[in-house]
Write a structure and sequence with these properties.
heterodimer; A: mainly beta; six-stranded mixed β-sheet; four-stranded antiparallel β-sheet; 12 strands; B: 113 residues; mainly beta; 0% helix; 50% strand
Chain lengths: 116, 113
């Protein structure tokens, strides 16, 4: 069975601080996909990034960066110079290849609060 | 292009009532799924479908039925609502292997009293 763990339930930072959200996953599959989604207070789920298991290259997009390490089964997400608009619940998720492709296994979510 | 459309956005049911949550997508996606979101538990998979006529159970299927008669629609039926089904429900769709992320509807907030 697949499992995603986001050990940080809540994080509180002051604006302009850097913050890292941790994600650890378990899977027996050799090919899989990892995702980060953001859920702002309005409630919708906003896609942030998708990563394939065979692509360990880290990625930076503006103030966001992701560190994928297969050796430690981790896919951590860093926000640099946080802003109040970053306040949201962040979910890490995992899916397999093949017929289970449509299923996502989510972590419990991390509530990020950025104070002005 | 509307994406994934869920109706209704809010619903209050009495225990024992039945209802159907509607989900439609206009992106010709093969994969569709239903999740429920409860505090501290993330999103959990209820049912999913890999195409018209094919459905399968997820992690928490009890009390829910689905069918997929067309590619576009994937309704979720609550057979006899219980307070434990109070939750926020999300429908998602996804295209073929390795191509894109899952797209989510806006969610349905269901309260069972």
């Amino acid at each position: 069975a697949q499992k995603v763990t986001q050990a940080q339930t809540e994080i509180s930072v002051v604006e302009k601080e850097d913050v890292t959200l941790d994600c650890v996953y378990e899977t027996r599959d050799t090919t899989y996909y990892l995702f980060w989604y953001k859920q702002p207070p309005s409630g919708e789920l906003v896609f942030l990034i998708r990563r394939n298991s065979f692509d360990e290259q880290n990625e930076i997009s503006g103030r966001y960066s992701w560190n994928f390490q297969k050796s430690t089964s981790s896919f951590n997400f860093t926000i640099t110079a946080s802003q109040v608009v970053d306040s949201a619940v962040y979910f890490c998720a995992l899916s397999s290849y093949g017929t289970s492709y449509g299923k996502l296994t989510f972590g419990q979510g991390t509530i990020l609060t950025v104070h002005p | 292009n509307a994406g994934v459309t869920q109706t209704p956005k809010f619903q209050v049911l009495k225990t024992g009532q039945s209802m159907t949550l509607q989900c439609a997508q206009d992106m010709n996606h093969e994969y569709m799924s239903w999740y429920r979101q409860d505090p501290g538990m993330g999103l959990r998979l209820i049912h999913y479908s890999v195409g018209a006529g094919i459905t399968d159970q997820g992690e928490v299927p009890n009390g829910y039925n689905v069918s997929r008669s067309t590619t576009e629609d994937f309704p979720l039926r609550l057979l006899s609502a219980a307070p434990s089904q109070t939750s926020v429900y999300f429908c998602a769709s996804r295209k073929g292997q390795g191509t894109t992320e899952a797209f989510f509807g806006q969610g349905t907030r269901l309260t069972v009293v």
